[in-house]
Amino acid sequence: MAQSEAETRRWVLHVDLDQFIAAVEVLRHPELAGRPVIVGGRGDPTERAVVSTASYEAREFGVGSGMPLRIAARKVPDAVILPVDHDAYTAASEEVMATLRVQPGAVVQVLGWDEAFVGITTADPEGYAENLQRAVLERTRLHCSVGIGDTLVRAKNATGFGKPRGRFRLTADTWLAVMGDRPTIELWGVGTKISRRLEALGIRTVRDLAVAETAPLAAEFGPKMGPWYRQLGRGDGSNVVDDTPWVARGHSRETTYQQNLVAREEIEAAALVLLAQVLDDVAAEGRPVVGLGLKVRYAPFLTKTFTRRIAETHDRERVIADASALLAKIEPDRPVRLLGMRAEMAMPDDARGGHTPTRSGW
């Protein structure tokens, strides 16, 4: 039956590629199909590295992203462990995004290698999503799942219910029936720390958050973020997909060292090497630095992060001098297994205004 104008409305699709990195590797190595595949580091579980992704077959053994590679190898002794190949994943991602952009009437907002929002106007979002999945598969041989929603938040949260290779719709009418009894940590934009702070306020479920009083939330999280978390609990927010090109807010580099760094001079020298690489990345963008970040992982696995705002500058030596205040925060006499440095840049006037995707859109 032909669509009528009254039936047609705006929808948000969240397209999420299934086990993307592992799937790309299986396409390159078809003999790995159906086997447990783990991708991480240089593919050597004797080295310090973490899992970037795991195939569904490996996930059945409890392997997940961020797990130390040696532990993953212990969980799945017969797994195939491969090194990370950023260039291959970037090329595959670009093919997927190009496919999304040529879909009828699609507005595409890229979120990362393996996911994007697609804004459409249709009376049949499931049919559109199915055609989109077919187009991606035919062009790239990659499968994806699609969340369908009337806001960005609902579309994003819907995707998990459609995995793998499926589709799922969440709207204002069904949000609390589906999400209400789930813990707040399952919301897009709520991590472990935020969920614990919410629980301290007596807010454990999505429904609790949706009906929470704003005053305690504002007192805990601030006058903007407090009410925003309540909005998140309702799945509310923008339904506008913005295809304005994404602009990096900063650049970072980090390294896990195969042998712990112990001497203070050695630790600071390693951090400055990373900072030099970051500043090379920043220089290529032509924007001034406005902030710095330091990540330190002490042995065996305690991670600390520090940030510092600095006066806007293009001067490399001034940035390095400002970094000394961060490096001074590294605890003496503690072995270091990972260091990371980050530089935040001033945003151009035409960039998406200072929002994250979860905060009511860009």
Description:
The chain is α+β, with helices and mostly antiparallel strands and 362 residues long. Helix 10 packs across helix 11 (225-234). The protein has 13 helices and 12 strands. The strands form 3 sheets. The protein has a 5-stranded mixed sheet with strand order 5-6-1-7-8. A 4-stranded antiparallel sheet has the order 9-12-10-11, with helices on one face. The model is unreliable at 1-6 and 354-362 (pLDDT under 50).
Write the layout of secondary structure elements.
Elements lengths: L8 E9 L2 H9 L8 E3 L13 E2 L1 H4 L9 H7 L4 E3 L3 H16 L5 E6 L2 E8 L2 H16 L3 E6 L2 H11 L4 E4 L4 H5 L12 H9 L5 H5 L3 H8 L3 H10 L15 E12 L2 H22 L3 E10 L3 E12 L2 H12 L8 E10 L17
Parallel strand pairs: 2-4, 7-8
Antiparallel strand pairs: 1-6, 1-7, 2-3, 5-6, 9-12, 10-11, 10-12
Helix pairs in contact: 4-5, 10-11
Briefly characterize the structure.
The protein is α+β, with helices and mostly antiparallel strands. The chain has helices spanning 20-28, 56-59, 69-75, 86-101, 125-140, 152-162, 175-179, 192-200, 206-210, 214-221, 225-234, 264-285, 316-327; strands spanning 9-17, 37-39, 53-54, 80-82, 107-112, 115-122, 144-149, 167-170, 250-261, 289-298, 302-313, 336-345.
